[in-house]
Write a structure and sequence with these properties.
278 residues, alpha/beta, FAD/NAD(P)-binding domain, 2 domains, seven-stranded mixed beta sheet, 18 strands, elongated
């Protein structure tokens, strides 16, 4: 069949957009790779009435809502999207639609420090608004480059949650261990939490055949797929973006809101032409 909309990505933006479209009586297919950015975290925060809910529980509840309104959700990795909106998955299956909503998210590239990635989302953090409250009053280490503005900003910001915030120059770190950080001179700096700045990369390689690609973000934090208006519309007719793939700074609640906006505008775009334009 040809769906009204295929949603690529089953995080908060994609599921929210799919619910809006399902409630508008549109046929919707959500394709989810299962690589949620916040998957390692114990819980989501700053989402009114959902504070502390695990990312897995949130996704399961979102999927159930999509299905309640007639939408379909499948697991799979999209490898290409072609003009005419033919979406091919890694298993070779092909799905067609009249419109695309891309909510595939981003990948966080961490500094190449042994032991860092294994603790990502638990004791290795990046966002004080996501984790600062849980780390309040504890010993925090900011991994960064001395003299760099972003590092200085993180030191100031995390200092709001703890009086014990220390800079750990990334070039002087040998490895991360459970107790903290082992420096290249053998010294162990005990820290409860570590803060890193990641390079954020949009998951958008599959859009190449549509003429869409990720570009460098103006803030220098990585790549994103820009929208041409606040609804998430892109320069390719019929394709919308929402969530972290379009806004790397977006949190769960704002990603969900962007998905809702995009879903509503896609529904409007699918309406028959106005009588005076027929």
């Amino acid at each position: 069949m040809t769906y009204d909309v295929v949603v690529i990505g089953g995080g908060p933006a994609g599921l929210s957009g799919a619910v809006a479209l399902g409630r508008a009586l549109r046929s919707v297919l959500v394709i989810d790779s299962g690589e949620g950015r916040n998957a390692p975290a114990e819980g989501i925060h700053n989402f009114l009435t959902r504070d502390g809910m695990s990312p897995a529980e949130f996704r399961a509840a979102g999927r159930a809502e999509v299905q309640r309104y007639g939408g379909e959700v499948i697991d799979g990795e999209v490898v290409s999207a072609r003009p005419g909106f033919e979406v091919t998955l890694a298993d070779g299956s092909v799905h067609r639609s009249r419109r695309l909503l891309v909510t595939a998210g981003v990948t966080d590239r961490l500094p190449e420090v042994p032991g860092l990635a294994e603790r990502w989302g638990r004791t290795v953090l990046h966002c004080p608004y996501c984790h600062g409250y849980e780390a309040r009053g504890r010993a925090i280490g900011v991994i960064g480059t001395p003299g760099e503005q972003m590092t200085a900003d993180k030191l100031r910001l995390w200092g709001q949650w703890s009086p014990d915030v220390r800079l750990l120059p990334v070039g002087d770190i040998a490895e991360v261990v459970d107790q903290g950080v082992r420096m290249t001179d053998g010294t162990l700096v005990e820290r409860d939490y570590l803060v890193v700045t990641t390079r954020i990369e949009a998951r958008a390689g599959f859009l190449a055949e549509l003429g869409l690609k990720a570009v460098e973000h103006p803030m220098g934090i990585g790549t994103y797929v820009p929208a041409t208006d606040p609804s998430g519309r892109t320069e390719v007719p019929g394709v919308w973006v929402a969530g972290n793939v379009a806004d790397p700074m977006s949190q769960v609640i704002s990603a969900a809101a962007a998905g809702l906006t995009a879903g509503a505008m896609i529904n409007f775009d699918l309406l028959p032409p106005a009588p005076d334009k027929q």
